[in-house]
Design brief:
With 188 residues, this protein is an all-alpha fold. It has one domain. The chain is 66% helix and 0% strand. It has 9 helices and no strands. The longest helix has 31 residues. The radius of gyration is 22 Å and the shape is globular.
């Protein structure tokens, strides 16, 4: 009644199942999750922050294309009602939520996908992380590691310039203003 399968057929079937389970299914799940979660507010448990923390370019691109975002965390000294309440309830969880937000914001993939000027964004984020490492001494190592990651991104982008002219164009590019001409200084 049942025909025995040849070893080649069994091997092809196993390869098909591995391909389906390892490649096709996860991509389908990611698409469904991206469509579903892009509708909801962003916090540390919705897909954008963990995807950014893991520097997962494909998933981040899908989520950002569907309108998801990662909000900038409140300042350490913020005195809004929400910050005061959450800090009073559990100050460690409150600080860890800020760190997780900065882990996501320091993702090279997120910076590349969401910034008009990734080099400027990297420099500004590096300065912010330096300030936070001074203010929250107990998490200095984490903020310093994130700062190093962001600085390596900026360095990597600048390293792609082959000549001093390319470097000058790269550093003086203004995505919102008029085109830069050699000899002009960039106005920020």
């Amino acid at each position: 009644m049942f025909k025995e399968k040849s070893p080649e057929q069994v091997g092809k079937w196993k390869l098909y199942r591995v391909t389906w389970n390892a490649i096709i299914m996860p991509k389908m799940c990611v698409c469904i999750l991206a469509l579903e979660y892009a509708k909801y507010p962003t916090d540390n448990t919705s897909p954008p922050p963990p995807s950014a923390q893991r520097n997962n370019y494909e998933i981040l691109k899908m989520l950002l294309d569907r309108g998801a975002s990662i909000p900038q965390p409140h300042d350490v000294k913020c005195s809004c009602d929400k910050c005061i309440r959450e800090s009073a309830e559990d100050s460690l969880s409150f600080s860890l939520a800020r760190i997780n937000a900065y882990r996501a914001l320091a993702s090279p993939s997120l910076i590349a996908l969401s910034s008009k000027d990734p080099i400027l964004t990297a420099f500004e984020l590096s300065n912010e992380l330096k300030r936070l490492s001074r203010m929250e001494a107990q998490f200095r190592e984490v903020y310093t590691a994130l700062r190093k990651q962001v600085q390596e991104l900026a360095t990597g982008l600048v390293d792609h310039a082959r000549t001093s002219y390319e470097l000058e164009v790269l550093l003086n590019h203004n995505p919102d203003g008029k085109p830069w001409k050699p000899g002009e200084k960039k106005k920020r």
